[in-house]
Design goal:
With 510 residues, the chain is an alpha/beta fold. It has two domains: 199 residues, Rossmann fold (3-Layer(aba) Sandwich), CATH 3.40.50.300; 205 residues, no CATH class. 57% of the residues lie in helices and 6% in strands. Strands 3-2-4-1-5-6-7 form a seven-stranded mixed β-sheet, with helices on both faces. Helix 1 runs parallel beside helix 9, helix 13 packs across helix 17 and helix 14 packs antiparallel against helix 17.
């Protein structure tokens, strides 16, 4: 992939990213910003459709400068009109290397009968270094026809290289210097001056004449503009000019540079519109809002009541809720207030629109609380231990009666008085221990039942907060982050090679 094709692929990718960004941002950015970015996207699409993989080089000069002859000599074709009686170029003529470039030439206003494709199968690879070049022969800038000057002024800002063709007899013409050259200070890298018809000048005078042209350019404020001599008639300097054109073809086109700069400016504008002061993004306050709703629903009191019933207290277990609208409103407001500074106001307003309303959130909270399992049955282990304790007490009482002689069983009391008392004491001790264990089992069961209610209720409320608050909020913030990422893609150029500076429109000579 050559530099121009790579530029097209890169600019297309950046344009796509910017279009996605402004579309995703929608009405959450200022309307003027959105319109400016959308216009940039549309303009980039239009220019990419025309193609930025061509290098535009324009031959510009006055009447009789020999532009058309030079055009034919560079192209190696006898195509451009060469005047005889009145050498005036009236229409734009174009020669394209390596493709027709029809869309671009239509846009440039080049008539269909003023176009020619230079590269052909007969050339082999001889013309390959110039592939992508569009060479334009512009109307004479000093023509008496106002329409000619309009064409010149319209096309100048679009070209990658301006080749000013001057005649040895007219290179100091004020119309050239005051009307055009003096307005191009700062754009020397996109210019070259060709002193044509050099065959009409004595060889010993040519170097001095070229130096005088350079001097006048410096007086115009143009430094470093190359000056070369040529003769289209004798072929002098044509190879040097073609070599320079090969170098220009290897750069990014002015169209690509301009589209890239416009994309960069629009992306930066959109990035500023969605940017916020740099600050770490804290986790969303899900747990804090859940705690607020737990308190508002009276879930702690319900858990305590269940704990009391499990421990043996009498009474009914109250149901949690319903939650009052004011409490839900406070929790929702706390959520929205926590987002301050995370995104621009338009995005936070979108969050407020997307999260559940107070009424919808309250209904969801009540539905979640109604599904909480309120288990208040007593501990089976405690009941079992209590039953065994009763049995132990009964055994102890029976043993004590026997040991006291109140109840005689086959002279058991007379034969084994001490062991029977020991049995009674042991039974009572076991009963006391079982009663203590049963109490401990009830307390443990009460804690578990209470914790289970709180956990179940908190989990259900957490699911409500995530569904109706966290997920809509995260969606908006993620969209804002995505817009920012896309703007970074849109203003990131992967081609670091410097390119020629585009040339602005200049005033026509008066």
């Amino acid at each position: 992939m050559n530099a121009q094709n790579a530029a097209t692929a890169e600019l297309t990718m950046r344009t796509d990213a910017l279009e996605q960004a402004v579309t995703l941002a929608g009405d959450r950015v200022d309307g003027d910003v959105a319109r400016r970015v959308s216009r940039t996207v549309a303009g980039a699409r239009e220019r990419l459709a025309l193609g930025v993989d061509h290098t535009l080089v324009a031959l510009v000069g006055g009447t009789g400068s020999g532009k058309s002859s030079l055009f034919n000599a560079i192209a190696g074709l006898d195509f451009a009109d060469v005047g005889v009686r009145r050498p005036t170029t009236a229409e734009v003529t174009a020669c394209v290397w390596g493709g027709t470039g029809q869309a671009l030439l239509d846009w440039l206003g080049v008539a269909s009968d003023r176009r020619i494709e230079r590269e052909s199968a007969l050339d082999g690879d001889a013309e390959a270094p110039l592939r992508g070049l569009v060479l334009l022969d512009l109307p004479d800038h000093d023509s008496i026809e106002q329409a000619h000057r309009v064409i010149v002024d319209r096309l100048l800002p679009m070209v990658d290289l301006l080749v000013w063709v001057v005649d040895p007899q007219k290179y100091a013409d004020d119309a050239l210097h005051s009307g055009y050259l003096q307005h191009l200070v700062g754009h020397e890298s996109a210019m070259v001056v060709v002193l044509n018809h050099i065959d009409t000048v004595r060889p010993e005078m040519r170097e001095e004449l070229a130096a005088d042209v350079s001097r006048l350019l410096v007086e115009d404020g143009l430094t470093g503009v190359p000056v070369t001599v040529a003769s289209a008639r004798e072929g002098l300097g044509i190879a040097d000019i073609r070599t320079r054109l090969v170098d220009v073809v290897g750069r990014r086109s002015t169209a690509a540079v301009r589209v890239g700069a416009e994309l960069n400016d629009a992306a930066a504008l959109l990035a500023r519109a969605v940017d916020v002061p740099a600050r770490p993004r804290a986790p969303l306050p899900v747990d804090a809002v859940v705690d607020d709703l737990v308190a508002a629903a009276g879930l702690l009191a319900v858990a305590d009541a269940i704990s009391a019933v499990v421990r043996g207290a009498s009474g009914a277990v109250p149901a949690p809720g319903p939650v009052q609208p004011d409490s839900v409103d406070i929790a929702r407001s706390r959520w929205l207030d926590s987002l301050d500074g995370r995104a621009p106001e338009e995005w936070l307003a979108d969050v407020a629109r997307r999260v559940a309303t107070v009424d919808r959130l309250r209904l969801a909270v009540d539905e979640a609380l109604s599904a909480v399992a309120l288990t208040a049955r007593r501990s089976r282990l405690a009941v079992t231990l209590s039953a065994v304790a009763v049995v132990a007490v009964a055994v102890g009482v029976a043993a004590a009666v026997v040991a006291a002689g109140w109840w005689r069983v086959h002279d058991l009391t007379d034969r084994f008085p001490f062991p029977v008392w020991a049995l009674a004491a042991s039974a009572f001790a076991v009963a006391v221990a079982l009663v203590a264990l049963a109490a401990a089992a009830r307390r443990s069961a009460a804690r578990r039942r209470s914790a289970a209610v709180l956990r179940d209720g908190s989990d259900r409320l957490r699911a409500v907060v995530r569904t109706f608050l966290a997920e809509p909020t995260a969606a908006v913030l993620d969209e804002r982050d995505r817009v920012h990422e896309l703007t970074e893609v849109a203003r990131t150029s992967r081609s670091a090679e410097p390119s020629p500076v585009s040339v602005p429109t200049v005033a026509s000579p008066s």
